[in-house]
Automatic annotation (TrEMBL):
The lineage of its organism: Bacteria, Pseudomonadati, Spirochaetota, Spirochaetia, Leptospirales. Transmembrane segments: none annotated. This is Phosphoribosylformylglycinamidine cyclo-ligase. It catalyses: 2-formamido-N(1)-(5-O-phospho-beta-D-ribosyl)acetamidine + ATP = 5-amino-1-(5-phospho-beta-D-ribosyl)imidazole + ADP + phosphate + H(+). It comes from Turneriella parva (strain ATCC BAA-1111 / DSM 21527 / NCTC 11395 / H). Residues 174-336 form the PurM-like C-terminal domain. Pfam families: AIRS, AIRS_C. Keywords: ATP-binding, Ligase, Nucleotide-binding. GO terms for cellular component: cytosol. Residues 54-160 form the PurM-like N-terminal domain. Pathway: Purine metabolism; IMP biosynthesis via de novo pathway; 5-amino-1-(5-phospho-D-ribosyl)imidazole from N(2)-formyl-N(1)-(5-phospho-D-ribosyl)glycinamide: step 2/2. Its EC number is 6.3.3.1. One of its GO terms (molecular function) is phosphoribosylamine-glycine ligase activity.
Length: 338
């Protein structure tokens, strides 16, 4: 069992986007307004405008994905807004940006107070905690397209960054730079198509095991449904430490996300791939090969920072549980020792 068998083919998605790269790039210069700057395929997009002296605008978008289905099934919507905001805002942090405002899009079969107030209230709470403004959004009913009791979420986060700063900083990255992990709060909001497939198999093949996992609501939430961690200390960290890159470990795991923050010619050598053990890991390992898990889930690490070893004390001032996972070497890609 793996992510592709569960219905998600990340490589195919990357191929389709790559095929459109030239057409997308052709839109990046807007006459009399500004232009997109920075690398293609980063965690967030950066737009520079002469009308805003001293700062560039950074934007990103994401959603909660099929985790929404489990949150609905087990009636745990209290943290869904943090999932939505966190998936977007953490990408802003990877670009070195400070969050400013957020927009949401909610699609549903039919509006119902039974879930709408909880969902929008949780988005509001997450924006306040970040902090960033919830500027507005859109709620759309899709009768005949979605079931009445179904809904899906997307979010859009916008931030700013001084023109003389950026992340990653490829020209500063060197062989030997440390790869420093920050723990996730759990699975965050990725890999849930595979989680749902595992749950379905467990419910059919090992109903007693499934009952044991789902009967204890507190443990169910802690292991499987905990909201995405928002790394709100990152802007302060960037003021006190020299960080050369940040990778948000989302769908595709370390293998697909860490290279997005590393300069061409260098690779990641990971000698400690799991410094923070997921509570869900023992169950996941029963159904999925360990190597494939690291190609799908964050496996306990939410962000990976690239920095020199002498920056570790400053990082620990903001994130005391930060752990060295490996270092940069010559080459390409990720070598992960399991």
């Amino acid at each position: 069992m793996d992510y592709k068998a569960a219905g998600v083919d990340t490589q195919y998605a990357h191929k389709l986007i790559h095929n459109l790269k030239d057409r997308i790039s052709a839109t990046h210069k807007v006459p009399n307004v500004g232009e997109v700057v920075g690398q293609y395929g980063g965690f967030a997009g950066r737009f520079t405008m002469p009308q805003i002296p001293g700062f560039d605008v950074v934007a990103t978008t994401d959603g909660v994905g099929t985790k929404t289905q489990l949150l609905r099934r087990f009636d745990y919507l209290d943290g869904i807004g943090q999932d939505l905001v966190g998936m977007c805002v953490n990408d802003l942090y990877c670009a070195g940006a400070t969050p400013a405002f957020f927009l949401d899009y909610i699609a549903c079969g039919k509006l119902s107070e039974s879930w709408y107030d909880r969902v929008l209230g949780s988005i509001t709470a997450a924006c306040a905690a970040t902090p960033m403004a919830l500027m507005g959004g859109e709620t759309a009913e899709h009768p005949g397209v979605m079931p009445d009791d179904d809904f899906d979420l997307a979010g859009f986060a916008v931030g700013f960054i001084p023109k003389d700063r950026r992340l990653p900083v490829p020209e500063l990255q060197r062989e030997g730079d440390m790869l420093i992990g920050l723990p996730s709060s759990g699975l965050h909001s990725n890999g849930y198509s595979l989680v749902r497939k595992i749950f379905a198999a467990m419910e059919k093949q090992s109903p007693a095991e499934f009952q044991a996992i789902t009967a204890n609501r507190k443990e169910l939430i802690a292991s499987w449904l905990t909201p995405t961690r928002i790394y709100r200390e990152i802007p302060a960290l960037l003021q006190s430490a020299t960080i050369k890159g940040i990778a948000h470990i989302t769908g595709g795991g370390i293998h697909e996300n860490l290279p997005r923050a590393i300069v061409a010619g260098l690779a990641a050598e990971i000698h400690s791939p799991e410094p923070f053990r997921l509570a869900a890991a023992p169950v996941l390992e029963k159904y999925v090969e360990r190597e494939k898990l690291f190609h799908t889930f964050n496996m306990g690490t939410g962000l990976i920072l690239i920095a020199e070893e002498n920056q570790l004390p400053a990082i620990k001032q903001h994130y005391p549980d930060a752990a060295v996972m490996g270092h940069l070497v010559k080459g390409s890609g990720v070598a992960l020792k399991l």
